[in-house]
């Protein structure tokens, strides 16, 4: 993989100053940390840098072979996305909890009568609602996260882009929406699905080399 000029400069800065925080890297480049977020995510996900909590970035020196990188990161979300579980806005908390465990998922997607995404209900949302509300019959619309405050992705984006969003937002899944819309949901992509993809490809490469 060929890194950009800025990414190469970041690698040099980390080599010379490790461990170094993202803020200090940004300061040396006279840029803001959000500007570097995608660069740092890519360098971390490819194994070139290692991000250590409360310590900063260090240079790991690992690289990924170009063909393996192609298989792991540049595939489209559409290639590995999985079906989403939908519920209606008037679904009760009790019913939502049942669906969550029945389908063994981390999030439920709330849609309106037109099948458009209006909200998201995660395990954390349900746990919080159960702890604060004794009434399990209240509708999920009362406690769900609402649009437009839900981060989405389109199927034409790369797996690397999806992984970067999941890391930046510190969430477990992204609803995949039809390109050109922000609420016509056609599936989802999760941290677990991406990890499974990496493992599947790694097994293929290992089998090929044996």
Automatic annotation (TrEMBL):
SMART domains: CBS
This protein's UniProt keywords: CBS domain, DNA-binding, Transcription, Transcription regulation
Keyword Transcription: yes
Gene Ontology MF, one: DNA-binding transcription factor activity
Alphabetical list of InterPro entries matching this protein: CBS_dom, CBS_dom_sf, Diverse_CBS-Domain, HTH_11, Tscrpt_reg_HTH_DeoR_CS, UCP026546_HTH-CBS, WH-like_DNA-bd_sf, WH_DNA-bd_sf
Entry-linked Pfam families: CBS, HTH_11
UniProt name for this protein: Transcriptional regulator CcpN
Organism: Tetragenococcus halophilus subsp. halophilus
């Amino acid at each position: 993989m060929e890194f950009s000029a800025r990414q190469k400069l970041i690698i040099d800065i980390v080599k010379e100053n490790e461990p170094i925080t993202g803020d200090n890297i940004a300061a040396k480049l006279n840029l803001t940390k959000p500007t570097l977020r995608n660069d740092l995510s890519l360098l971390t996900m490819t194994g070139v840098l290692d991000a250590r909590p409360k310590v900063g970035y260090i240079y790991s020196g690992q690289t990924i072979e170009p063909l393996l990188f192609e298989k792991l990161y540049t595939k489209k979300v559409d290639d590995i996305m999985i079906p989403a579980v939908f519920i209606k806005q008037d679904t009760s908390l009790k019913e939502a909890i049942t669906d969550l465990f029945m389908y063994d998922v981390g999030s439920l997607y709330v849609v309106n009568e037109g099948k458009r995404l209006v909200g998201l209900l995660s395990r954390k949302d349900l746990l919080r609602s159960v702890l604060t509300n004794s009434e399990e019959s209240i509708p999920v619309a009362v406690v769900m996260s609402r649009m437009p405050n839900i981060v989405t992705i389109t199927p034409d984006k790369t797996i690397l882009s999806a992984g970067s969003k999941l890391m930046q937002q510190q969430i477990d899944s992204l609803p995949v929406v039809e390109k050109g819309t922000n609420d016509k949901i056609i599936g989802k992509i999760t941290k677990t699905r991406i990890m499974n993809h990496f493992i599947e490809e790694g097994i293929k490469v290992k089998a090929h080399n044996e």
